[in-house]
Amino acid sequence: MPAVVAVALTAFAAPTLLQWMLIGTPVLGDFLDVTVYRAGGAALLNGEPLYESDLPALTGSYPFTYPPFAAIIFTPLSFVPTWLCRALVIPAHMLLLVTVVRELLRHANAASIRERRRATVAVVALVFLVEPLTWTMWLGQINLLLLALVLLDLVGEHRSSGVAVGIATGIKLTPGLFIVYLMCTRRFGMAARAAGATAATIGLGFLVAPHDSLRYWSGVFADNSRFGATAGQGNLSINGAVARMLGDGDLRVLLWLVLAGIAVVAGLAVATAVHNRGEVLLGLTLCGLTTTAVSPFSWSHHWVWLGPLTILALLYAPKSVCAVLGVLTFAWPVHIILGLESHFPVLGISTFPPWHGFEMVYGNAYLITFVGTLIFVSAGWFLRTEPGRQLPRTSSRSR
């Protein structure tokens, strides 16, 4: 563990030091989003409305975009000083990342136990630089926690399988697609537990904060403007890509719904197919990527399932696929290359400024990765398992 922490923290600090040495302006993360979570928990405790106005957090005021159940989960943060919440972000995320990597390597049967410990150090340091994971840590976002909840809940089957998926859905709606995925893979008991847990989170929200719950579920949850401009460069979902091409209007909404529907069907179909042939981790990863692609608004840090995809690609994909994946998804020193003075950390190629229309390509790098992955997996080009070395298989029945 000390080696993992040391390597990963070095990877975290290197871009900051490099930019400071080259252009004299350090790159600093402000862990903003964890302070918004803290503000949501505090507002709930103080009887203040969650959705009628922005909540004061750190250097400004920001909307609370999560269900009331999430505010309940965040209430303990209100008893912790803001500086301590921000200080705990990196240690907490490092623990989550190490847990996720170990679980992936263990279930992928990638190495012996002794070799797996060494591999964990290298893989953690590498996936730390997958841009969505980098941004999740810099902001103090909850995406990696949700990934861990789903992954740890569904890689094996036990009596409570599905409950954590329901809790994750109660915190943030997008994991709800995993409930549909469980039904597609005929794990109906797990799907029922996930749906029941989701319903329980909604019920608890109405019990604790009835006015906020009524307001949220009567329309706030569908208000995309609370996240930002749909056509903005930061929206890396199908909806954002369509909006940048067509602008706002009924045609944009209709085309998004059609394309998102196609993506859901295709994503779940491929994920179900690979699950049924025993590739459980890949099936989960494809479903996770699908949730982000079809979401109305997806910041780059929402694409955290690119982390597991990177690990599986390193284990089983041709080197050429790994190279393309690295170009499209890894955090690059964009601000250093362009000489920008910014407090933001390294970003992916989707953040490059417009250039002769090519921004429609590199600006949608994650969607291209999603579509390309579906094509490669469907064609059987993605996995390159060695003789006698198979991805984990689980029963299609839920206990």
Automatic annotation (TrEMBL):
<feature type="transmembrane region" description="Helical">
    <location>
        <begin position="320"/>
        <end position="340"/>
    </location>
</feature>
<feature type="transmembrane region" description="Helical">
    <location>
        <begin position="253"/>
        <end position="274"/>
    </location>
</feature>
<comment type="similarity">
    <text>Belongs to the glycosyltransferase 87 family.</text>
</comment>
<keyword id="KW-1133">Transmembrane helix</keyword>
<keyword id="KW-0472">Membrane</keyword>
<dbReference type="GO" id="GO:0005886">
    <property type="term" value="C:plasma membrane"/>
</dbReference>
<feature type="transmembrane region" description="Helical">
    <location>
        <begin position="360"/>
        <end position="383"/>
    </location>
</feature>
<dbReference type="Pfam" id="PF09594">
    <property type="entry name" value="GT87"/>
</dbReference>
<dbReference type="GO" id="GO:0016758">
    <property type="term" value="F:hexosyltransferase activity"/>
</dbReference>
<feature type="transmembrane region" description="Helical">
    <location>
        <begin position="119"/>
        <end position="152"/>
    </location>
</feature>
<keyword id="KW-0812">Transmembrane</keyword>
<keyword id="KW-1003">Cell membrane</keyword>
<keyword id="KW-0328">Glycosyltransferase</keyword>
<feature type="transmembrane region" description="Helical">
    <location>
        <begin position="69"/>
        <end position="98"/>
    </location>
</feature>
<dbReference type="InterPro" id="IPR018584">
    <property type="entry name" value="GT87"/>
</dbReference>
<keyword id="KW-0808">Transferase</keyword>
<feature type="transmembrane region" description="Helical">
    <location>
        <begin position="164"/>
        <end position="184"/>
    </location>
</feature>
<protein>
    <submittedName>
        <fullName>Alpha-1,2-mannosyltransferase</fullName>
    </submittedName>
</protein>
